Amino acid sequence: MAFLTATANQVLDKILLNTDFTHATDLFLSIHTGTPAAVGNEYTGYDGTNRPDITFDAAAAKVTQNIAGTDLDFVNFQPGATISHAGLVDQAAHGAGTWWWDGALAVTRVVITGDTLRFPAVTGVTVTLT
């Protein structure tokens, strides 16, 4: 996943100019049928009314991953879809919040009706600062 431009600018301003910004206190994983910057492609046809929350380990070597023991499941797709991207947002409700990071999945997933899409603990979601 990559920083959105607004997020990258805030991080740079903090490091280089000591300019504070309001950072996300909680993050939630969204799934998409295309690049998250495009309006209307967040996929919401799964059980549950909100995005699942996600917590990360401390970064090492410019990389962090979702914490051990926390699988992120999107259950019971209705209808099926092709999921190509994911995002990190600071609100649980679909269509709400500020986007912080987004990126293409390493492997696009075609899910059929009734499927579960799982992002496994530790290796499921990786954020890299390059």
Explain how this protein is built.
The protein has 130 residues and is mostly beta strands. It has one domain. The protein has one helix and nine strands. The chain has one helix spanning 5-17; strands at 2-3, 27-32, 53-54, 63-65, 72-74, 81-89, 99-111, 117-119, 126-128. The strands form three sheets. It has a five-stranded antiparallel β-sheet. A two-stranded antiparallel ribbon has the order 4-9. It has a two-stranded antiparallel sheet with strand order 5-8. The chain is globular, with a radius of gyration of 15 Å. The N and C termini lie close together (10 Å). The mean pLDDT is 87.
List the helices and strands and how they pair.
Layout: E1 2-3, H1 5-17, E2 27-32, E3 53-54, E4 63-65, E5 72-74, E6 81-89, E7 99-111, E8 117-119, E9 126-128
Antiparallel strand pairs: 1-7, 2-3, 2-6, 4-9, 5-8, 6-7
Give a concise summary.
The protein is mostly beta strands.
Keyword list:
single chain, mainly beta, two-stranded antiparallel sheet, about 35% strand
